[in-house]
Design goal:
Shape: globular
Mean pLDDT: 93
Distance between the termini: 35 Å
Strand content: 15-25%
């Protein structure tokens, strides 16, 4: 996965600019509070982990060092606990060394709830990035070990973004005393320059800001919210889901071209983690309960390519219906999701051509698009006879 991701890496971005751009402090921020916390911790030597010979011995001291900066967050040593609940079908283990959660109830690795995945490497040869990159060359390490590390952290980000409704995610890569902070979205990843977290305050500042940031800044898709217990129970029954399935609520306008259009309110299940690179359309579909009309519909979201000559899928359905095209489902609601803050939009392409960015191929912008179909189709592999299969193909050809 590292080799597939290498051309979508943008960096190295100055860590100060990274923090100000993606995790800005609130207007009432008291800078002296963080400064005094960091000075006390630094004087106590809590960040000095170089004396620890084995990587495994650094996790607990690191957690203890970072907790005071973000008491709102939960730091968990997950190095011995792969996520076998959400990622059981994967061909690799999803097992970050440290998982950071926004609640105090999560244990081990639960990729459906994790906020930040932290990976440690105790040998420079395992660094996914070049320490001092040349301006005209990629700063992604071209060694096998470097690609292995890039693939590892990419797989964690991919699992996190697919198992949650998120706009983006953060992760941290630590190579002994050096750290980099990474922001992932559907266009690629933006990586900071490397810094010594024992001498510089950036990593502590990152967690200090993250602990005080809104869910939207942390990467949560705030257009999707937890369903009420009553709605969740109704939807699980209607969709034949297990009673343990986490359920969410989302609203989709019936006609985005009409101001203040009525919305369909849907109850949808938690998405399923997928084990392939996080970049691209990342189409997700599921059955959903239209709660007001008590009917089961098909819900779809994807990160469509944002170009003038590429028509949004919902508008394509609308156009087909206006021309009375046969054998297609009716799109009863759709829209491009407009996020309340700019940080929730994809950012990688925006910075891909920055002066500090090494060569990359992150050039395709994406926008989150959602639609609802009035019919829930059967899988193509579930036909009852060859005759039914041939008829399905015929109907599709007529629709074309």
């Amino acid at each position: 996965m590292g080799r597939e991701m290498k051309d979508r890496i943008v960096g190295p971005m100055a860590v100060e600019n990274f923090l100000d751009e993606f995790l800005p402090n609130p207007k009432d921020h008291d800078s002296s509070d963080f400064a005094s916390r960091f000075a006390s911790a630094s004087n106590a030597g809590v960040f000095d982990l170089l004396s620890i010979r084995k990587e495994e011995g650094t996790y607990t001291p690191f957690i203890q060092a970072m907790r005071p900066f973000a008491p709102q967050l939960s730091f968990v040593n997950s190095s011995g606990n792969a996520d076998l609940t959400n990622c059981s079908a994967f061909t690799f283990n999803v097992k970050p060394d440290v998982c950071v959660y926004a609640d105090a109830t999560s244990h081990g690795c639960d990729i459906s709830k994790v906020e930040v995945a932290i990976e440690f490497k105790w040998k420079d040869a395992n660094d996914a990035f070049i320490k001092y990159p040349e301006v005209d060359k990629s700063f992604v390490s071209q060694t096998d070990k470097g690609f292995d590390t890039l693939g590892q952290i990419t797989s964690y980000a991919s699992a996190q973004l697919s198992a949650q409704y998120r706009t983006h995610a953060f992760s941290v890569l630590i190579i002994r005393n050096r750290a980099r902070i990474i922001r992932w979205d559907r266009e690629g990843a933006i990586v900071t320059d490397a810094f010594d977290y024992n001498q510089e305050s950036h990593l502590a500042n990152f967690f200090y800001r993250l602990g005080r940031a809104s869910p939207a800044l942390r990467g949560v898709d705030t257009s999707v919210t937890p369903a009420s217990a009553e709605d969740a129970a109704l939807a699980r029954t209607a969709l034949s889901l297990a009673t343990t399935t986490r359920m969410f609520k989302v609203a989709v306008p019936q006609d985005p071209d009409v101001e203040d259009s009525d919305c369909l309110t849907l109850i949808i299940p938690q998405p399923t983690a997928k084990g392939f690179p996080p970049v691209g359309r990342w189409t997700r579909t599921c059955t959903a309960l239209d709660i007001a009309n008590n009917r089961v519909v098909m819900f779809k979201d994807s990160w469509r390519v944002t170009m003038k000559d590429v028509l949004p899928e919902g508008k394509t359905y609308k156009l087909l219906k206006s021309h009375n095209v046969r054998n297609i489902a009716e799109c009863i609601a759709f829209h491009d999701v407009i996020h309340p803050i700019s940080q929730q939009n994809t950012q990688t392409v925006k910075f891909a051509s920055a002066e500090w960015a090494c060569p990359n191929k992150a050039v395709t912008p994406h926008t989150l698009h959602r639609l609802v179909l009035n019919l829930v189709g059967e899988k193509l592999t579930d036909f009852k006879s060859s005759h039914q299969l041939v008829l399905s193909v015929r109907d599709a050809l007529l629709g074309m």
